[in-house]
Amino acid sequence: MGYSLQEIAKSIGARLVNEDPKVPDISGVASLGSAGPHDLVFIEGEKFLSSALESRAAAVIAPEKIAGQIGQAAKVFLLAGQPKLAFVRAAMLISEHSADHQLGVHPTAVVHQNAKLGLGASVGPHSVLHNRVEVGARTRIASGVTLGAGVIIGKDCVIHANVTIYPGTTLHDRIIVHSGAVLGSDGFGYVLDNTTGKYEKFPQIGKLEIHDDVEIGANTTIDRGALDATIIGRGTKLDNLIHVGHNVLVGEDVVIAAQTGISGSCVIKDKAIIGGQVGLGDHVTIGEGVILGSGSGVLTGKEITGKGEVFWGIPAKPLKQHLKQLAVLSRLAKEK
Amino acid sequence: MGYSLQEIAKSIGARLVNEDPKVPDISGVASLGSAGPHDLVFIEGEKFLSSALESRAAAVIAPEKIAGQIGQAAKVFLLAGQPKLAFVRAAMLISEHSADHQLGVHPTAVVHQNAKLGLGASVGPHSVLHNRVEVGARTRIASGVTLGAGVIIGKDCVIHANVTIYPGTTLHDRIIVHSGAVLGSDGFGYVLDNTTGKYEKFPQIGKLEIHDDVEIGANTTIDRGALDATIIGRGTKLDNLIHVGHNVLVGEDVVIAAQTGISGSCVIKDKAIIGGQVGLGDHVTIGEGVILGSGSGVLTGKEITGKGEVFWGIPAKPLKQHLKQLAVLSRLAKEK
Amino acid sequence: MGYSLQEIAKSIGARLVNEDPKVPDISGVASLGSAGPHDLVFIEGEKFLSSALESRAAAVIAPEKIAGQIGQAAKVFLLAGQPKLAFVRAAMLISEHSADHQLGVHPTAVVHQNAKLGLGASVGPHSVLHNRVEVGARTRIASGVTLGAGVIIGKDCVIHANVTIYPGTTLHDRIIVHSGAVLGSDGFGYVLDNTTGKYEKFPQIGKLEIHDDVEIGANTTIDRGALDATIIGRGTKLDNLIHVGHNVLVGEDVVIAAQTGISGSCVIKDKAIIGGQVGLGDHVTIGEGVILGSGSGVLTGKEITGKGEVFWGIPAKPLKQHLKQLAVLSRLAKEK
C-alpha cells in the first residue's frame, strides 16, 4: 500500500540521499507540520531545513543546491532541481491509488439515447446528458451535472458536482471543472429599441470552446459567444467566481485569480498573469506575459503590453508609476 | 427549413433591396466572419460594408441611411431604421424553429401534488417543485432546478439548469434565469447580543418579486427582503455573479453588468445603467437614467441623480471631476 | 395558532405595558409598514414611535428607555434592553411552528450504505450522500445537494438546495449553508515547470472545517487547504458570493459582507468586521476586532491591527488618513 522511496525517486527524477532501509513505504504527501511517518514533504531552500529534520515525515524533497548542508542528517532526502515540482509529481503518483469514485453510469443519471460515452467514462447520480452529448474516455462526470444538447467533452476530464454546461459547448482533454461553474451561458447583450425604450435580447448563439489542461474554479461563469466563439486556451487556470464575458479569447498558460471580471470581446494573450478582483472593460487586450496586480482595472478598448512587466491600479499603469502616485498622495495628505 | 427573405423583410419591417431569386432560404444569423450561405448578417454603418459584401452571407441587414452606397452590389440587403434591432427580430423569428427541449414533466422530476402547471409548461429531469408551486403556460423549467414551497412563476419563462428559487418568491412573465442563480435566499442581517458578544440571525422572511421581461445571469444571487420585499422591475437585465441584498428596489429597464454588488435597502430607479464590479453601500439611491462606470463605489446612504449623466470612481463623482482627479495625480507623480 | 403576548414577553424577557385583553395572539413578525393585526413589530428608539402607533401591529417591542414617552398609548408594548434582539428572539419562537419541510430521506435521494443519519435528520429529493458521510440529528439536507465521501455534518444544520460539499469536509453544529455554495473545493495552486513552461497542479488535499453557528451565503466558495486545513471559526457569518482561498484561518464571530475575496493563507482574527468587495492578498493578517470598509484592499503579506479601528481604501489605511487623501485629491483637482 504505497511506494518505496526508490520507486518515487525514479519516477520523479530525484536523487536519493541518506538511504535508510527502516523508512517505510510512502502513502501520502503532507506539510511539514502535519506529516506522519508515511508522508513525503518538501522544502524549497535552506530556510526550512531544520523544520524538515524535526518533522515526522519519512523523507524530504529538497533542492539539489542544498546537498552540502544535508550531510549525514538522520533523514532521507530526495534532491531535485525543482523540488516543488518534484513534490507535485510524487503526489500525483501516490494519489493514483486512492480514487474514490464509481465507474459506469449511475442508474439515476438521465442519459439521452444519442449520447456517447468513451471507455471508462463515468456519470454520477442525477446527472443529465442531453441529445448528442459526447464524453471521452475515462472522463468523470460527478452528480447533479447537466450537459446540454451537443456538449462534447474530451478524455480524462473531471466535471465536479452541480456544474452546468450549456448546449453546444466543447471541452477538450484533461480539463477540471469545479462545482457550480456555469459554462456556455448567454452573454450580456441587448439592443435598445428607440421607439419603445425597451431592451431586446441580442442573439447569444455562438459557442464556447475550452482547450486541453484547463482548470476552472468553483462558481466561475464563462459565457458563450454572441455570434462567434468564446475560447479558453490550453493550460489556462481560472480560479473561483470569475466572470468571462462573450467572445473573449484567452490564450495558453494564462493564470487568472478569483473574482476577476473579463468583459465581452477581450483578448488575453499567452502566459498573462492576472490577479484577483481585476476588472477588464470590453475589447481590452492584455499582451503576452503581462502581469496585472489584484484589483486593477483596465478601461474599455485599451491594450496593455510588456512581457513580464507588472501593471497595477485603476486605471492600470506600470507598477513604478502606480507606486509613485500612491506615495505622492500619501505625502500630500500628511503635509496639509 | 427556413424563411424566405420576403417573409423576413415583412416580419421585421425591413425594405428588401437587390432581390435575387437565386438566394436560398435563411436558416440562421451569424457574424460577418462566420456566416454561411443560409445566414443573415447585419452592419450598423458604412464602415463594415465591404466586409459584408465579401462575406458568404445570403443577405445583409443594413441601415436605411446607407441605401445610396449599396447601389447594384451583388448582395441582397434588408434596409431598416434600426438595423441591429431588425437583426434581433430576425434571429427571434428563425430560432422559433429550433427549440431543443422536451415538453411535459420528466419522470424523474419531483412535483408536489399541490403544484400547478400551466398549459405547455415543462419540467426537466431531477427538478423539484415543492408544495403550492405554480408554473405558468409554456414556461420551461430545466434540469436540477429547485422551486421552494409557494414559488409562483408566470408564463413563457425559461429557468435554466441548477437554479434555486427559495420559498415564496414570485416571478412574473417572460423571465429568463440562467444556471446557478439563487433567488430569494436569506439576506445578511444579524443582531449583536451585547451580553454574549454573539450575533443572532435577524428574521429574513420577506419576499422577492421579479417583474416581466427580466433576465438574470448565471450564478447571480438575489436575497429576499428581511421583513418587506426585494423587487426587480420590468425589463431589467442583470449579468452574471451579481449580488442583490435584501429589501433592494430595482426599477424598470435597468441594466447591471457582471459582479456588481448592491447592499441592502438600495433603490435603483428606472433606466439606470450600472457597470461591472460596482459596489453600492446600504441605503444608496441611484436616480433615474444615471450611468455608473465600472468599478465605481457609492457610500452608504448616498444619493446620485442626473438622467444620462455619467459618474465614476470610488467614491463615485461626475465623470469630468473623476478624470480631473486622475490627471492631477498623474501629473504630480511625474513632477516629483 | 400563535402565542399570547404574555408568553412572548416571558420567553424573550420583555416587560409588557398597556396590556389589552382584546389584542389577539401573535402569529408573525413584520415591518411597521406591512404589519397586520396578528403581527409583532419593533422600534429601536423614539424616532419611529408615531409610525409604530399608527401601524396595524398587535404590539410593539421598544427600548426600555422610552417607557416614559409611551404613556397610555392605545398600543401594547413589550419593553426590552435590546429591542432588536428581543424581536429576533420573538421571531424565532414563533417560526418554530411554521417549518415546511419533510422528514426522513426522500426516495429519490442516493444515500451510500455506509452513510449515517442522526435522529430526525432529513435528506431532500435528488441529494447524494457518498461513502462514510455522517449527518447529525435534526440536520436538514435540502434537494440537489452533494456531500462527498467522508463529509461530516453536525446537528441542527440546514444545507439548502444545490449546495456542493467536497470529500472530507467537516461542519459542526447549527450551521446554515445557502444554495449554490461550494465548500471544500480545490485551492488555486500550481507549480510552473521551468523546463516546459507549463503549470502543474499542486496537491489540494487538505481539509475544510467549519465550526458551530456559522452561516454561509449563496454561491460563496470556500477552498480546502492545500496540505493543511482551511478553518472557519464559531459564529462567523459569510454573505453571498465570497471567495475564501486555501489555508485561510477565520476566527470566531467574524462578519464578512458580499463578494469579498480572501486569498490563500490569510488569517482573520475574532470579531473582525469586513465590508463587501474587499480584497485580501495572500498571507494577510487582519487583527481582532478590526473594521475594514467596503472595497478596501490589503496587499500580500500585510498585517492590520487595532481593535474597533476602521481602515479603508486601496491599500487599506486608517480611516482618517484615507479621508484626508480623498479630500486633498479633490481640492487639488478643483484648484487646477
Question: Any descriptors?
Answer:
Udp-n-acetylmuramoylalanyl-d-glutamate--2,6- Diaminopimelate Ligase, Chain: A, domain 1, 336 residues, twelve-stranded mixed β-sheet, 2 domains, UDP N-Acetylglucosamine Acyltransferase, domain 1, alpha/beta, homotrimer
Polypeptide structure, described:
The structure is a homotrimer of 336-residue chains. The first copy, chain A, is α/β, with parallel strands linked by helices. Chain A folds into two domains: 5-95, Udp-n-acetylmuramoylalanyl-d-glutamate--2,6- Diaminopimelate Ligase, Chain: A, domain 1 (3-Layer(aba) Sandwich), CATH 3.40.1390.10; 109-321, UDP N-Acetylglucosamine Acyltransferase, domain 1 (3 Solenoid). In chain A, the strands form five sheets. The first copy, chain A, has a twelve-stranded mixed β-sheet with strand order 6-9-12-15-18-23-26-29-32-35-38-39. A ten-stranded parallel β-sheet of chain A has the order 7-10-13-16-19-24-27-30-33-36, with no helix packed on it. A ten-stranded parallel β-sheet of chain A has the order 8-11-14-17-22-25-28-31-34-37, with no helix packed on it. Chain A is flat, with a radius of gyration of 24 Å. The mean pLDDT of chain A is 95. The interface between A and B is large, with 58 and 57 residues.
